[in-house]
Design a protein that fits this description.
2 domains; pyruvate-formate lyase- activating enzyme; 291 residues; single chain
Length: 291
């Protein structure tokens, strides 16, 4: 990535990304919008520079979602008016990610121990952006946000669990666990820690048998609300809201709490029936009452 050019606020991103930071160097991080994962320390900012600003230091603008790219480019220009070293990057701009630094671009508590994925799902750009699985140095945290944690080697996973046992927290695996990869030795490791949430994934009806296997393997060790599942809908041609709801209900019947994710890359307004489905199946109290 090159430095911001006043004449070219759309300066291209380099393949090394924006997460590089020299030891002991302070770093301003800028985000187009606030999410539940956005850091809230004094050097994390949402949007434009404030009237009272930190002294000159490197500024890194991170864009996670493609619909925020235009805003990221605008922020590159805005922050370049006051700072000499401003870079734009992030997942939405093809940043492959390097070693993970806790608290830098994600809230403290979140950790990423690997990047990439061996799958090549057509709806996901992780393999193109990050490549196959890369195991990272394990950093402390209690919210594991890897793209495909179960695809890591056994030695890496065992070492991650060794770290998790030191956290004195209930652990969340919120990145999305691939149900096709779950093996008995994984279950033994999950049983060895206090679990808050295990998030699996289901993208089509073909994924239901793998979830049934997961539910059998996990048994009754975990609280009912701990087992959850991201459910992608509206991706495959011909899927109607009725068909999607049948699959969401099937996940619920298997014993996992589904979280509906409507495929909508253009962010076009959703038809009423899809909007209703989304509202209902992202709120367990709503679908429990009607299931």
């Amino acid at each position: 990535m090159k430095r911001a050019d006043r004449k070219d606020p759309a300066s291209p991103i380099s393949r090394r990304g924006i997460s590089h930071q020299k030891r002991g160097e302070s770093l301003i991080r800028v985000f187009p919008r606030k999410t539940k994962w956005t850091p809230d320390d004094p050097l994390a900012f949402i949007g434009d520079p404030q009237l009272f600003r930190p002294p000159d230091q490197p500024v890194r603008i991170s864009v996670s979602f493609t619909w925020d790219i235009a805003e990221g480019k605008r922020l590159l220009e805005a922050w370049s008016q006051y700072y000499s070293d401003v870079l734009l990057g992030g997942p939405a701009l093809g940043d492959p990610g390097g070693e993970f630094t806790p608290g830098l671009f994600l809230q403290p508590g979140v950790t990423i121990t690997s990047r990439g994925c061996p799958r090549h799902c057509p709806w996901c750009d992780v393999p193109d952006r990050e490549g196959p699985i890369r195991e990272l140095e394990i950093k402390p945290g209690w919210i594991v946000q890897d793209n495909n944690f179960l695809a890591c080697s056994q030695s890496h996973i065992v070492n991650v669990f060794d770290m998790l046992r030191t956290q004195n927290r209930a652990i969340k695996f919120s990145g999305g666990l691939d149900p096709r990869l779950l093996e008995p030795w994984h279950v033994g490791l999950f049983n060895s820690i206090k679990v808050n949430e295990l998030w699996f994934s289901c993208e089509s009806r073909d994924g239901l048998p793998a979830l049934e296997k997961v539910r059998r393997m996990l048994g009754n060790r975990f609280a009912k609300d701990a087992l959850r599942c991201y459910v992608l809908v509206k991706y495959f041609p011909g899927e109607t809201p009725q068909m999607a709801e049948e699959r969401l209900y099937a996940v619920y019947q298997i014993g996992l709490l589904p979280f509906c994710m409507v495929y909508n890359p253009t962010l076009a307004p959703l038809p009423r029936e899809w909007s209703f489905l989304l509202r209902k199946w992202t709120r367990p109290p709503a679908y429990r009452a009607r299931a």
